[in-house]
Amino acid sequence: MSRPTSLDLPEHTAARRLDTSRGSFAVLDAAPAPDAPARQGTALLVPGFTGSKEDFLDLLAPLSAAGFRVVAVDGRGQHESGGPRDEAAYAQRELAADVSAQGAALAAEGGGPLHVLGHSLGGHIVRAAVLAGGPQPWASVTLMSSGPAEVDEAQQIRTQLLIDHLPTMDMETAWRAMRALDADPGADPVTPDWLEDFLHRRWVNTVPAQLIATARQLMTEPDRVAELAAVPLPKLVLSGEVDYAWPVPLLDAMAERLGARRVVIKGAEHSPNAERPAETAAALVAFWAGEGATSSK
């Protein structure tokens, strides 16, 4: 999971609700900085498994400083968006339809080209939204630390544990069990109290049915790279140097199959958005501002 360096909202950022044709979603909405050179457009950021809009907090300031409006969203069932306790509500097609509705709502507000980014599981959901057909509001698509199909075998083992045990546990018990797994030496850096409190609060706020349904998706996602390659949108594949969910060479090969721009963030792993936000923001700005937003190469 991504670990933001702070929960403080940057200047010109509001926590609000985004109303769409498919309901209301909690978002962090960062306006372009007043001293930015020019308004560049809007970016919708879609988080991954066990994540939330806060995963992108460290990107908001540098992206808004470059002139972008940036909207990070909690998907249905994630953290502050809420959702039903029914796994069917979290089928990938439903989550993808939500992203399309979020995009339509933002496009209706104007503000220049609309870019969409999906992190990890969010990349699969964004891909499904792009492939669903119908009018597309997107000017480009970015897949961040998100692979071509199901997650790596080692990650499948951990994900299966959640699928096996979450239906028989309350969220608090599941949280303690999960943190016990992470207590192995070298598994995670020491977590400050404020971050531990937030991660705990986010976990218990997340709808269990959403976690179970999306865990199954991570373990069964088919390879749809050829389908996405056929969509005439500029594409970026961005990741860290190491990735526990999809090996980096697999991401390299996916980018080549997509005809996508490929960026590897030095010193980052599965969450370059939180681990190297300045470098990640610079790569996104370069892509969205024109270098990659007019060509898929």
TrEMBL record:
Pfam families in alphabetical order: Abhydrolase_6 (PF12697)
A molecular function (GO) term: hydrolase activity
Domain annotation AB hydrolase-1: ranges: 44-283
Signal peptide: none
Protein name (record): Lysophospholipase, alpha-beta hydrolase superfamily
Hydrolase listed as a keyword: yes
InterPro entries for this protein: AB_hydrolase_1, AB_hydrolase_fold, Carboxylesterase_BioH
Domain of life: Bacteria
Keywords attached to this entry: Hydrolase
Gene3D superfamilies linked to this entry: alpha/beta hydrolase
Keyword Nucleus: no
